[in-house]
Amino acid sequence: MVDLKLLYQDLVRFETELWSAVDARLRANCALQLTWFEVMRVLGRRGGCRVLDIAGEFGITAGGTSKVVDRLEAAGYCRRRANPDDRRSSIIQLTPTGHRVVTKAEKVFEDELETRVGSVLPERSLEQLATSLADLRAAHRLSARQEPS
């Protein structure tokens, strides 16, 4: 029988180690921290969105997300424009500089994931891991919706 406490420990520790390794590589090669890169990837994929959309994607607060967006905007990687559908919010989009940086960082990100994960586990194990993690996340989201507030 699998020791769930040990599994938890390994999963959390690996996530921390992986985050640190990817972050260090992005900082060294692109002068970009992983937190910024993650938000920029969302902006690039969506072509523009609200702070609430980004926060929802990561399951974090709008306040924390807004602070990251403020820093990205100050660095020249994104800009806010008026939201035509809601005057209370803005649409955030990558700038041309932001697009260039995230494109470069994407390659660094993929290389580091290949080094740390893809080259370690066989394809079948990676597929099983991906399926298992998706199942666990879906079960968590379902149970969170069913919990009383």
UniProtKB/TrEMBL annotation:
> Which organism is this entry from?
Amycolatopsis melonis
InterPro entries given in the database record: HTH_MarR-typ (IPR000835), MarR/SlyA-like (IPR039422), WH-like_DNA-bd_sf (IPR036388), WH_DNA-bd_sf (IPR036390)
This protein's source sits in the domain of life called Bacteria
One Pfam family recorded for the sequence? MarR
Q: Which PROSITE patterns match?
A: HTH_MARR_2
Domain HTH marR-type: start-end pairs: 4-138
* Name this protein carries in UniProt: MarR family winged helix-turn-helix transcriptional regulator
SMART domains per record: HTH_MARR (SM00347)
